[in-house]
Specification:
Elements lengths: L2 E6 L6 H14 L4 E4 L2 E3 L3 E3 L5 E3 H10 L10 E5 L4 E6 L2 E7 H7 L4 H13 L3 E5 L17 H7 L3 E6 L5 H11 L2 H4 L2 E9 L7 H11 L2 E7 L13 H4 L10 E6 L4 E2 L13 E6 L9 E6 L1 E2 L2 H10 L2 H10 L3 E5 L1 H6 L2 E4 L8 E4 L7 E3 L5 E9 L2 E9 L2 E3 L8 E3 L4 E2 L1 E2 L5 E4 L8 H7 L9 H19 L2 H8 L1 H5 L3
Helix pairs in contact: 1-2, 1-14, 6-8
Length: 488
């Protein structure tokens, strides 16, 4: 058994993709592999077979490792619901809502639970590939840390530091991280790798020499820009903030307003596989395109706050006009709740106990509360098969629910449809993953690939690139050090 941890010089340096690619590369060598992230912060989550939830990236990494997602792969998940509050999920179950100050004080108590998950993962694997969070250089957050060096020290796991050359300053960021690390933390760093290099990696040979000279660490290689990473599900909304201008390819436009607390926006990713569809992620301050055939109101970690945000942006007016023109609207999870007549929060789950008016496009009402639904589902919707999962709190009822969107294989039904058939809502995440389901929503010519098959092919391609550009044998040898240092 062994483990190796990948930490970054900053956020969004590509750790999640690298861990996924290495999980696939190690699996291709016949090894039993498990991904692991001690602490994650994301509103894009996945449901495990036992009804728990973990970060979306860890579910993708599990797919890369060719194993089913498990709650032990991401024992602590923080789901932001405001600028300073987050829902705390431990071992796949909601444990409460935290203020930022409370988290700083309380995270130390979670270390035993993180280590217990790690121990169980180690027992099932030849190698565990661990992903850190944020930056290893955030020494102001080091006390009580469970996500980066705090975990590495407690678990005795060797660390490889990842720097992002695409953002610039990679020599300084890697060398500077060495300067600010506590000596005992720095002793766990076995080396570094440079990620997102555009061009011939051999051209950075002098840069590797400079970093090694400043840090005393060895290089494990230079990873080229991985275009295939764009086909993997994203869990960080930063990809939406960085989205470029609209393309001009598809004759059919699917539009999704980007709300402030958008969650599980990877539900829209499968539309990118359709050559005749242009997926438009509509940023704040921008109207919903009038030419859209389908508008998808996405999930949300704070339904009532995002409902107000929709109105602030004038998207409620756009949606009403879209319906008058005969356009289709689908709300997913929180978006489904917003489409109804009212959303009630009698227990103050999202902050203040209140009831607010919904968009009134569906004749249903939602009451937030109760046990959180966390279940994988499959069935038929619009006459086509689907596979997905539910992840929500609250009950939605009303006259339009007599026309459900989906019927599960176990006979249960989900969702609601307006009398004119133009507006629908569903609690199913991952609804568009199968090509037949996408074609059921839009008359798209041809047989598009299933999303899961596209992701799997991307993982194979990324693994092949990492085999070519990283010292995989050395990383596997390094992972064996975890056993040597555990318990120190």
């Amino acid at each position: 058994m062994g483990a190796v941890m990948f930490q970054g010089t900053g956020s969004d340096v590509g750790k999640s993709v690298l861990v996924a690619g290495l999980c696939r590369a190690f699996s291709n060598r016949g090894l039993r592999v498990r991904p692991f992230k001690p602490q994650n912060m994301s509103n894009n989550a996945a449901v495990t077979a036992d009804g728990g939830e973990i970060g979306r990236a860890q579910a993708t990494q599990a797919l890369a490792a060719r194993v089913a997602p498990e709650v032990d792969m991401n024992p602590v998940l923080l789901k932001p619901q405001g600028d300073r509050t987050s829902q705390l999920v431990v071992h796949g179950r909601v444990r409460g809502v935290l203020q930022a100050a409370n988290w700083r004080r309380g995270r130390e108590g979670l270390m035993p639970e993180v280590l217990a998950s790690f121990s169980r993962s180690m027992a099932q694997a030849d190698v565990v590939v661990v992903e850190g969070a944020g930056s290893a250089a955030e020494v102001n957050l080091r006390a009580g840390d469970i996500a980066n060096m705090g975990f590495a020290r407690a678990a005795g796991v060797p660390v490889v530091l990842v720097g992002d050359i695409d953002r610039g300053g990679v020599i300084a960021s890697l060398s500077g991280t060495r300067v600010v690390l506590d000596p005992a933390d720095a002793a766990l760093v076995a080396g570094f790798l440079v990620n997102k290099f555009r061009g011939d990696p051999a051209l950075f040979a002098d840069g590797l020499t400079a970093i090694a000279s400043h840090t005393g660490w060895r290089s494990f290689g230079v990873v080229p820009w991985l275009a295939e990473a764009a086909r993997l599900p994203s869990e960080d909304a930063v990809v939406l903030q960085k989205a470029g201008p609209r393309g001009s390819g598809g004759r059919i436009v699917v539009a999704c307003p980007v709300t402030r607390h958008i969650a599980n926006f990877d539900d829209l990713d499968p539309w990118r596989l359709e050559p005749e569809v242009e997926l438009v992620m509509v940023p704040p301050g921008t109207p919903i395109p009038a030419e859209a055939a389908l508008v998808v109101l996405p999930g949300s970690k704070a339904t009532i706050a995002d409902l107000r945000f929709v109105r602030e942006q004038g998207w409620d007016i756009d949606l009403a006009a879209h319906r008058r023109r005969g356009g289709a609207i689908l709300g997913l999870c929180g978006g489904y709740q917003m489409l109804g007549r009212a959303v009630a929060d009698p227990q103050g789950i999202e902050g203040t106990a209140e009831t607010v008016a919904g968009l009134g496009l569906l004749d249903v009402e939602t009451v937030l509360g109760g046990t959180k639904a966390l279940v994988q589902v499959a069935g038929q919707a619009r006459g086509a098969p689907f596979q997905g999962y539910e992840m929500h709190m609250g009950l939605t009822t009303g006259p339009d629910a007599v026309r459900p969107v989906a019927r599960y294989d176990d006979g249960r039904v989900d969702g609601a449809t307006s009398e004119d058939g133009l507006v629908a809502g569903s609690y199913v995440h991952g609804l568009f993953g199968l090509a037949a389901q996408r074609r059921a929503w839009l008359d798209v010519a041809g047989d598009g690939p299933d999303h899961a098959a596209s992701v799997d092919a991307a993982l194979d391609a990324i693994a092949a690139r990492l085999e070519a550009h990283l010292d995989i044998d050395a990383l596997l040898t390094l992972s064996r050090r975890a056993d040597d240092h555990r318990g120190e």
